[in-house]
Amino acid sequence: MTNSAEQLSALSILLSSLLLLVGLFFFIAGSIGMLRFPDSFSRLHAVTKADSLGLGSIVAGLMFYGDLWQNLLLLLIWLLVMASGSVSCQLLARFAKTQQDKA
Amino acid sequence: MAMPTQGAVFIRYAALGAAFSLCWAALTGGRGWWFFLPLCLLLLLWCYWDKLSLPPVRFKAVPGFLLFFCRQLVLGAWDVAWRALAPGKKWAPQWQRYDVSMTQPASQRLLASMVSLLPGTCAVNIETGQPDVLLLHVLDGDADWRSGVAALEQQLVKLLCNEQRQGSTL
Amino acid sequence: MTELSMTELSPQLLLYIATAACLFAIGVYGFIVGPQTLRRILALNIISAGIFMLMVVLAYRGLANGQARASPDPVLHALILTGLVVAVSATAFALALLGRLKQTQASPEHQP
Amino acid sequence: MSLLLFDTALCLLLLALALASMLSRQLVNAVMLYIAFGLMMALAWARLAAPDLALAEAAIGAGLTGALCFSALARQQLDITAAALSWPQRLWPATFVVLMLGGILAALLQLPSVASPLVAVAQAELINSGVSHPVTAVLLNFRSWDTLLELVVLLLALLGALPVAPAEKSATSWSLGLSWSRLLAPMVILLAGYLLWAGASQPGGAFQAGVLLAAGAVVLRLNQQLNWLSWCNFWVRLLVVAGIAVFVLVALLALWLTPANVDAVWLSWPPLLAGGIILLIEVFATLAIASTLTLLVVGEPAPQHNRTESV
Questions:
Q1: CB-based contact B73:B114 (threshold 8 Å)
Q2: Which chain B residue has its CA at the smallest distance from A75's CA?
Q3: pLDDT surpassing 50 at residue A2
Q4: What are the Cα distances from residue C97, in Å, to C88, C93, D69, D246, D300?
Q5: Number of domains chain D is built from
Q6: Binding partners of B (≥3 Cβ pairs within 8 A)
Q7: Reported ipTM
C-alpha cells in the first residue's frame, strides 16, 4: 500500500482527496438533514440519498490506492450498501406509516 | 408462460456462476479456487432450489440506464444536501400517489427501491389495484418529482426484457 | 517478567483499560437498578463486553509498546471468540426463559 | 495524536451508549442503543488489533442480538415504561458501583505492560499446527478442548431453550423484505464460505462463518422462509450434533493414526494432516454453530404443545 501511495502522481492524490472531501460533505449534509428535517420520513430522505452518494464518492477516492481486486471489492461493498440502504429505507418508511395510521 | 429452453437455462446459470466467481475473486484477491469450486456448486444448487436467477436484461440498454441512474443519484443527493444545509425551511413534505404501469411485482419492487434514491422521493408502499399505485413520500410537493419517477420507469421498462413475460425472480 | 511493579502503560492502553472497567461498572449498575428482566439481561451483556474488552487490551499489550515483531495474544483472542458465542447462546437461553415466564404470568388472568 | 483522539472519541461513545442503554426509560430504546453499542464494540476491536473478534461481534451485535431482543420484546408488552426510581434507589447502587470501580481500576493499573509469554510459544508452534493464522491454530489445534466444549455448551443451551421456547407470534412479512432476504442469501453463503476459507491464514474461521450464516438464516426464518429448519426435522438435528460428532470422530481417528513410538495425546493432530483435519472440523462446526444459533434465536413454533395448554 505504501509503495503504491508513493508512486501516485500529484494529480491523482489531488483527485482522490477531492473525492474524499466530497464524500465527507455529503455525509455531513445527510447528518445535518437528519437533525433538521421535521418528520421521520424526511429524515429517511436525507440519510438514504446523501449517504449512498457520500459512500460512493469515498469509495471512488479510495480506489486510487488499491489494486484491481480491492477496487472490485470496494465497488461491491458500495453497491450492497446502496441497495440495502434503499430497501431498508422503504421498509422503515412503511413501518413508520403503519404505526402512524394505527395511532 | 413459456418455459425457457435448455440453452437459456445453461447460460443463465453460467452467468450466475461467473458473478459468484467475480465476488470470490474480489474477496480473496484471486486465490483459493479449490475451495471455491464446491462452494460455487452449493451456491448454484441453492439458487436452483430457491428459484433465484439473474433478471433477464437487454444489454443494449445497460449503459444508458447506468448513466441515467448515476445522474439521478448525484442530483438526488445534491438536492437533499442543499435542502438540509440551506437556511430556512426548504421542505414541504407530502404524500403522493403514482400509478405504476409496470405489471411484474418484481419490477415494481425494483422501481420502488430505486425511487428512494431519486431526487425528492421516497417509496413507502405498493398498493395493488387497477392500476397498481406506488405510495410516495415527497420531500417538496411543489417540485417536479413526477417526471423523474416516470423517466426511471421508462428506463426500467427498456432495461428489463420480462416486463411482459413471467419468471423474473428479483 | 517476575517483577509486578507499577509499569508505564501507554496512554492508549490506560484509556481502553479505564473504558473496560467503566463498562463493567455500568453493567453492574444496570443489573442492580434495572427494573425489567430484559434490561438485566442487557446489563449482563454489557458486563461481558467490559470483560472481553479488558482481555482484548491485555492481548494488545505487546503491540502498544512497539516491540519488534509483536503480535496480539492469539490465546486470549481464541478464548474471547469462544466466550462471545457462549454469551450469545446464554442470552438466547435467558430470553427464551423470560418469554415463557411472561406467558405463564399472563395466562392465568385470561383463563376463567 | 490523532489516533489518541480517535480512541478517546470511541471510548466516550461506547460509554455513552452503554449508559444510555441502561438508563433509558423505554425498553425499546434500551435494545436499540445496545445494538448500536455492539456495533461500536466491533469497531473498538478492529482498532485493538483483534479483527477476528470484530468480525464475530459485527455479525452477533448487528444480526443476532437485534433479532433476539426484538423478538423477545415482541412477545411481551411494548408499553412497559419503568417507573421513575427514587433518589435513594439510585444513589446507593451508584455509590457501591463507584467504589467497586475505584478498586478495579487500582488493581488494573498494576498490570505489567509486557505481553504474556504465551504469544511467543504460540508463534513458535505455529509451523506444526497446519494453519498459518495463530487464532485458528489456538482454537482448533492447541486448545481444541475449548472449542469442543464450547460446541457442547451451545448444544446444551439449545436443549435447554427448546422446551421452554414460547410460542412464536405470527409475524407478517412484506414481499419486499422477503425478496430482499432471498436475494441476499447466496451472498451470505458466499461470505461465510470465504470466512471459513480465510480462517487458515487470515482473520476468519468457523465461528465467524457460523455466526454470519446464522444471521442470514434468522432473517430468512423471520420472513417465513426455510421452514424446514426446525428441531422437528431429523436432518437438522443431525446437523446440530454433527459438529461435536465429527470433532470426536476425527480426534479418535487421529489417536488411531498416531505412530506407536509417539505418545498419543487426545485432541492433537499429526502435523502432516493437521490442515485437512482442521478444515474438516471447521466445516461441520460452522454448520452446527449456524443451525444451533438459528434455532436458539428463532425458537420453536411448537404447535401441539401450545394447543394442549390453551384448552
A1: no
A2: B26
A3: no
A4: 14, 6, 13, 30, 13
A5: 1
A6: A, D
A7: 0.84
